[in-house]
Amino acid sequence: MAVYTEIGDGELDALLADYEIGGAIACTGIAEGVENSNFLLQTDAGMFILTIYEKRVKPDDLPWFLALLSHLSDRGFPCPVPVRRRDGGVLSDIRAKPAAIVSFLKGRWPRKPLPRHAWAVGDALASLHLAAADFGPERPNDLSVGDWRPLAERCGPGADDVRSGLADEIARELDVLETAWPRDLPRGIIHADLFPDNVFFLDERLSGVIDFYFACNDILVYDLAICLNAWCFEPDGAFNITKARQMLGAYRARRPLSRPEFDALPVLARGAAMRFLLTRLYDWLNHPEGAFVTPKNPLEYWRKLDFHRGVGGAAAYGLDF
Amino acid sequence: MAVYTEIGDGELDALLADYEIGGAIACTGIAEGVENSNFLLQTDAGMFILTIYEKRVKPDDLPWFLALLSHLSDRGFPCPVPVRRRDGGVLSDIRAKPAAIVSFLKGRWPRKPLPRHAWAVGDALASLHLAAADFGPERPNDLSVGDWRPLAERCGPGADDVRSGLADEIARELDVLETAWPRDLPRGIIHADLFPDNVFFLDERLSGVIDFYFACNDILVYDLAICLNAWCFEPDGAFNITKARQMLGAYRARRPLSRPEFDALPVLARGAAMRFLLTRLYDWLNHPEGAFVTPKNPLEYWRKLDFHRGVGGAAAYGLDF
């Protein structure tokens, strides 16, 4: 929960003068989202989200993210639509920080995902991959397999304070992942962070996907492997094969998986667990005293990684090829 | 900024089934408000605020607060209107906590109040006092002059860690206030917490007053004295006599002040500064490590108190009787 940047009197009016959505009726800081400052903005033209980008997002990447959202929404994918300024641009400045206004998406993210949610996410993920297939500009994934070891090294010996021996276990697992990582699977735009709090549902239907600020070009089924981690484990750590079956089934009904893609799921899921383990570990070891945001326990992802390490093959996720 | 209570899947639908405002289209935790959990709730019928009351508000007081809001809004005062349930009530339960739905007020609170805002607040405060004049039920002020010494004693010697000698200075000031406190000025319902973040403006006009959870029966001009503290000092500590003149002028144009009320303003303003000094001091000394909410520095109110202590009479606030 976070609002880092205050909008001063007059600044909002000055901003909105550059758009064609009327004046502000209300602008309320919202508690969700830990990376940026987000405001629910009501104008004569309706409801919008105003985002002020804080330091975690690279300003140079913003045009790419916003162009991707425009591209996807043009193709009917339910994501936020950037609102164009009168001058045609989609980026503005507030207090020397970049800012954008996007459409407001109805719905609410599921607090306790059910198998039907997992189905809908698999279906939407395939739609996203297909809708983005003709998006030209590329953004490399800066949190992919080659980036994990440097990140682990930046965590340093602190990992062992989280769990004795963890630093060594991570190093050994990275040896395996770097060797086994698939090199020639179909690539494209992936969301790369499709957790439950980024997917809205309304009247039991998926109504929106938000937070594309990790989107990038990478192996398409790596996105599915991220979702297996994000949606298919219960709070007690148990893997829910019913949800996995629903998710994979819905995905491949819309975008069929090749045999190599299917077979790569366990190693990709291990890698996805490693990626979230490492960023959580880094945040855990480096969060400032008294920060607003309590870091999430990294060990949840060590346990997920361990599950994927133990499966005999992708069939463990509930479907045969 | 705070959302303390999560609303589970299905809980919102179950809650809204008790009302006649349709189903939830969106429900977003908002970052403002430090006492309760507040959500911007969009339904088929429009925008509302859903509040879940956390422990600082006494549940037994809630019917009084909500009845006051209904009374004021019936008389045209721009405050949140409690939405009635199908059974006629205005209180619900979420996760064993009391909850209410009220109308959403347009506008935005002024980050840098100007004299015109001070004028509008004086005008609205008088309207509030007049509109509440025929509200029957009473709620005593549990933060009035008789409550300050016990509160100061609960702060204990920690006050001296905030500023050397502060505990003694507070005790001596309380001796003065308890003796000088006026006993027979006109009483009625006061807001008692009318700070800038509780007053919304839209298109340069006051559009709403929120957060009545300190409202109570007390000396009417004590409310004006609170507003002098809340609105008429600059960030650097300087008293802005222009704002005070606007505020007092607007107030008495709508509700004329008697001579005793006018003359009591300096001591009431000292008392108001003491009240906020003490609650801030208590919160400063007692906030939990790593809490979301950073307590406000209590010394700001010691300096305001000192200003009021130094004035020769109410004319120092910009108007002669």
Write the CATH homologous superfamily of the largest domain in chain A.
Answer: Aminoglycoside phosphotransferase (APH), C-terminal lobe
Q: What is the total number of structural domains of chain A?
A: 2
| Oligomeric description of these chains | homodimer
One letter per element, helices H and strands E, the order of chain A comes to HEEEHEEHHHHEEEEHHHHH
Span from first to last CA of chain A? 41 Å
Please give the radius of gyration of chain A in angstroms.
20 Å
Largest interface: A-B, 35 and 36 residues
CATH topology-level name of the largest domain in chain A:
Aminoglycoside 3'-phosphotransferase, Chain: A, domain 2
Can you count the beta strands of chain A?
Answer: 9
> Unreliable runs of chain A, pLDDT <50, ≥5 residues?
none
Q: How do the strands line up in the largest sheet of chain A?
A: 1-2-3-5-4
CATH architecture of the largest domain in chain A: Alpha-Beta Complex
Estimate what percentage of residues of chain A fall within beta strands.
Answer: 5-15%
Share of residues in helices of chain A:
40-55%
- Class from secondary-structure proportions of chain A: alpha+beta
Rough shape of chain A?
globular
What is the C-level CATH assignment of the largest domain in chain A?
Answer: Alpha Beta
Number of helices of chain A: 11
Q: What's the mean pLDDT score of chain A?
A: 94
Give a short account of the largest sheet of chain A.
5 strands, antiparallel
EC number (chains A, B): 2.7.1.39
Pathway (chains A, B): Amino-acid biosynthesis; L-threonine biosynthesis; L-threonine from L-aspartate: step 4/5
Enzyme class (chains A, B): transferase
Keywords (chains A, B): Amino-acid biosynthesis, ATP-binding, Kinase, Nucleotide-binding, Threonine biosynthesis, Transferase
